[in-house]
Amino acid sequence: MHHSGPDRRRAAWQVAWRATLLGVALSLLGGCAQLGYYGQSLSGHLSLVRAAKPVDEWLAQPDLDPSLRRQLALTVSLREFASAQLGLPDNDSYRRYADLKRGAAVWNVVATPELSLQLRTWCYPIMGCAGYRGYFKPEAAQAMAAELRSQGLEPYVYGVPAYSSLGWSNWLGGDPLLNTFIQYPEGQLARMLFHELAHQVAYASDDTTFNESFATAVEQLGVARWLATRPDALKEDEQARVRQDQVQVLLRTGREQLQSVFQSTASDDEKRAAKAEVFVRLRRDYEVLKRDQWGGDTRYDRWIAGLNTAALAIQGSYTDLVPDFIRLFERQGQDWPRFYAEVRRLAALPREARRAELAQGVVATSEVRSDRVDAPTPN
């Protein structure tokens, strides 16, 4: 819907009024120590909403940058595909665009104990508990990291190009497309949209790995279907996908080695030394991979250099359960609504029961139909 004149002003007042009500609700749910955090979260999200305007309004501008025009037009097709072919929500999210004039939507802080891969968690109204804490200003994220470091934890701060409000902000205009990811190559842009929309389908309030792995499975299955009929984009995507998978293998190996170190009976000093060696080995293997197979591609250099235990832990949350979700999709006959219904059922279970059923392949719904076509090979 387009707003102009009084309609646009009325829409702006509605956004402000709804935001005020949300702020009151948050103040009732949190103590004084949390109000500052909730305040920056609310104002930061509202700044995104207010900066965004419908994609068709951007496309109507005759002087719009051609590359931005191309990418925005692509998102229209991706958004339609997401709802029509993947069963993802057909709502206001990702139908508006905002240029934030910065390189990240938010900055996340994650942390682990020095000798553990267990993420520290924070609990919030609406979304429950998660293994990260997001800030709309990098200085605030770094301040939080310093506080965690003073508590003996090992923090990691990273910029996030997009995040999901889990659908609750659709009444404020929906989660917008952002300059932080709009220029991604086609396959990567598709992954971003499918992943974030998946968070609006199912969400376990106490299980970051379940939530992120589910969204990653949806993005992998979805982008395979999208690219299956777009050979040029598929070819462009293949190299980046292969290299990303190779990096994930290195990270998974590093996590497994660290887990073995942390669970051993060695002394803490011995564990610290072994931990340092794991990171030396990981970076060395990366340099060999880059030199021997990538022709010197440096795109991951800065990220690999900054890795620590917390960074490895949060990366694992995006991938560890993906194979289980893909198998679940197959057991549901590659039927998106049935798959989502089963994931929602699992999300409502206690965490241990949820994980056990997902790992064991328990199917609580009716028998899988046999008339489904095979899904393309996932990423």
Q: How would you spell out the order of helices and strands?
A: HHEHHEEEEEHEEHHHHHHHHH
Spatial arrangement of strands, main beta sheet: 1-2-8
Look at the helices and sheets and give the structural class: mainly alpha
Span between termini:
36 Å
Number of strand segments: 8
Pfam families: Aminopep
Protein name: Aminopeptidase
InterPro entries: Aminopept
GO molecular function, one term: aminopeptidase activity
SSE topology sketch:
Elements: H1 6-29, H2 32-51, E1 53-54, H3 55-59, H4 66-86, E2 96-98, E3 106-113, E4 122-124, E5 128-130, E6 133-135, H5 138-150, E7 153-160, E8 177-178, H6 186-198, H7 208-227, H8 231-262, H9 268-293, H10 301-305, H11 309-319, H12 322-331, H13 336-347, H14 351-360
Parallel strand pairs: 2-8
Antiparallel strand pairs: 1-2, 3-6, 3-7, 4-5
Give a quick summary of the entry.
The protein is built from 14 helices and 8 strands. With about 375 residues, the chain is mostly helical.
What does this structure look like?
The chain has 379 residues and is mainly alpha-helical. It has a domain at 10-201. The protein is 59% helix and 8% strand. The strands form three sheets. It has a three-stranded mixed sheet. A three-stranded antiparallel sheet has the order 6-3-7. Helix 1 (6-29) packs antiparallel against helix 2 and helix 7 packs across helix 11.
